[in-house]
């Protein structure tokens, strides 16, 4: 692969006669192990770059798999060049489209910032252009490197005067190429170009390296700030004896690292990291921003979260401060940068975790900062208040606004707020949270190249695809119940696919036996469940399996939570499983290192946008997470391996795609679905897919909006059957339908597969398009797990595409993943049921954990038993 550069003077390469002038593209070429071709030119705008043929020359050398970095704005911003914001947008769209046609990966870059603005202040001066780039990023499923925000913060951290070192600032006679000197606040010196190039190199790492991590980790969370030094040192030794090679620390230790404002003390961290290093234990270090200390909340009380009813959170617990508050951000950024600089000294710090479980305990905030930022956000999103009024339909109930400042926050009101207002405020909350997270990444990358992650989870209201877009690797926490193992594997299948550039994923928290806190005494898991979790997790591409926590707490609120050791240092209830899991990890490690995960051919699209819609428009009974888990679990329990993907994911690798509960189908997603079907894919839509607009309004012309028009569906009717008998028929089965039902009439190309019993209206239909097929499901049976109707549907439409059907067929309670080796295929399989389960083996296999040869026929697995089946010399099957 090659790196291709399209841009202006700040990116361009220069000869010695212009030294020390340098563009960051020139410096990048010296840093990367691959070829860099720099087409950037001084003075280029998007218009001139295309009209002068420079983009054409770039396209001529571009090949599939190349990466093209695009950075324009400096000269487009200059009125003398006559490039409007609309033309800027259209030119970039054309570049992106042409690059994608050649299977080149376009990456948009926001323009690097000037040292200072016209008033001599470090400022952000490209806001309209950044808004365009953000919009193009979403519309075209692109990566975006925010060089503008990074350089803005970098100059701030140095101070405007010291930042001159990064630019072409020269005194009279200081350099022979500039005898009269130079006072240039736009163009870089070699030092400044190097700073930007180093950042770009870090961001390009996932494109240049197949895997960031060459080994798998097993460990636990530890809290050196809580325990005496001798206790902590003993625990680190015990951790090593248990075969653990990974520890996560620091997420709540802000007070220890900054005991007084502006006074930093990393001595505790230094002692801890030295102990880990001596035992050969690698560390995930957390940025401790969820727990601002008391000195902070006393001095900055306006930073505390304000609830919808006007009450204000007080100090204590965690996440009590609004992440939008400027004082909080200033202190958080400063602490993050100092921590990152300190951690760069330790080779055994292999991962940095941002914060801890964003939005775990809080959701919306109505503080003064949020009130101030809200109209600014709306102005960026909607441009004019007239467009906002039209988009939201504010003629209802005299809700129309005369200015963005007039738009209320969704405080308490006698009835419900406008659905579009509630949706926009939740979007504002998610977007500004991601802004904070990405800012933390900038301050980390100023100091270190340690990869960055976050421990997300399904229960929090986040926009995870955007969140992880700027992070290096995915991470999550889960405490799934043993009675519903798909709730655990859903995490594996979702977070493995949250980043298009990497399938590596870290499980950063799970329990040894049970979760728990003062108001929840949870029941321990059955013995053996944890080993099955670890086994199938590692098979599914986990890079870490990490317990919360190593030694139980004596204080706080989570004392009932199980641990490796009790608070008094004895083995806790799950200790036996911890030992067995450690032994299993060591046995699996060489097998995992010699194999690669193989994706399934069936995918299900998960959407945080849809989840947000269901928090608002749910009929009083729908929960997106529950809906999705139920459908996903029904497929897993039938032995269908699936990938859980998102709107931005590529569809090229899949044969069957489920798109359920996606209430708004964006134009970009619609184009991808159309292409998927044209190329031969099977698309299964619904229920409720396409029944709302982007602003959470009802469609204007078709009950399924643009999706319905493409499908040729009309006479859309949607109604609730909760609490009444309402049957649907499919094949030879007739069953009660579940809650919200959508019926429709298709054009002549549609075949009716399912009808309602009352009016014979269609609720399942099928049509052929191009080389593929489409099904729309207007309602599901009431209980997917026991439904003969759903069994019949899946047997007909899905099971023929199951990836591993030639090797085996698994029964209920079993879970499997496929991996490939240099010489063959491996299938990792475990029994999550609390009773014996079986599978049918179609081709004789070698079982690697017991070194047995298995013959065709029924194979039995005891509860939580694990097997690794291997087939070698299978030719084309190994894919």
From TrEMBL:
The keyword 4Fe-4S does not apply. It is an enzyme of class 3 (hydrolase). Keywords: Glycosidase, Hydrolase, Metal-binding, Zinc. GO terms for biological process: carbohydrate metabolic process. Residues 221-583 form the Glycoside hydrolase family 42 N-terminal domain. GO terms for molecular function: beta-galactosidase activity; metal ion binding. Residues 600-783 form the Beta-galactosidase trimerisation domain. One of its GO terms (cellular component) is beta-galactosidase complex. Gene3D superfamilies: 3.40.50.880, Glycosidases, SGNH hydrolase. Residues 6-194 form the SGNH hydrolase-type esterase domain. Its EC number is 3.2.1.23. It catalyses: Hydrolysis of terminal non-reducing beta-D-galactose residues in beta-D-galactosides. Belongs to the glycosyl hydrolase 42 family. This is beta-galactosidase.
